[in-house]
Structure formats: structure tokens, C-alpha cells
């Protein structure tokens, strides 16, 4: 459980994987993102993740009932990385806060590669 919301009728608990999937899907909707990246345990290199495992490129921590999200992405060559990162941050914060009701305190976007 990464976060929970207390309502008058009970609790809503969110698992880390659910929030990571929302963040991964939100990231893939942004222009200029080729995909999520995951570090290969075998050789230590970053590799492109297939669309069914998007949560592997997302790390989520909870501190004081607020989420801290870390993303690892691969971007398209010729795009402005700062604009892409800003769009990702805004989209993820909006989607997670609206879908779940949890607060997001920080989002870190790590660009692990550029693809043509």
C-alpha cells in the first residue's frame, strides 16, 4: 500500500503498482516520449520497456502521505527535453491527483536515452 484515503464509509488503499501504471500510461501519452526505460540486471544497460510493463520504469515512494515519483524515460531525437519533462510532470500530477485523490509532492524525470 502506497497511499490511502479515509472516507466516511471506509478506506481506499492504493497499491504501488496501480499508481505506477497511472504514471506510466500518462507518460506514454506525452509527445516526444519513445518509451519507459528499465535497467537490465544482466549487463547494467538501460533498455526500452514494452507497453505492458510500464510500471517498471517508475519508482514511487510515500512520505508524509504524499507521493514522490521517479521516472526513467527514453525520448525522441530532435525534441526539446525540458519541454517534454515539464509536460510529463504536469500530466502525471494532474492524472494521479484526479484519479486517486492522493497528493504528489515531487516528480523526477530521468532521461536515460535518445532514440531516432
Automatic annotation (TrEMBL):
This is Alkaline shock protein 23. It comes from the Bacteria. Belongs to the asp23 family. It holds the Pfam family Asp23. It comes from Clostridium luticellarii. InterPro entries: Asp23.
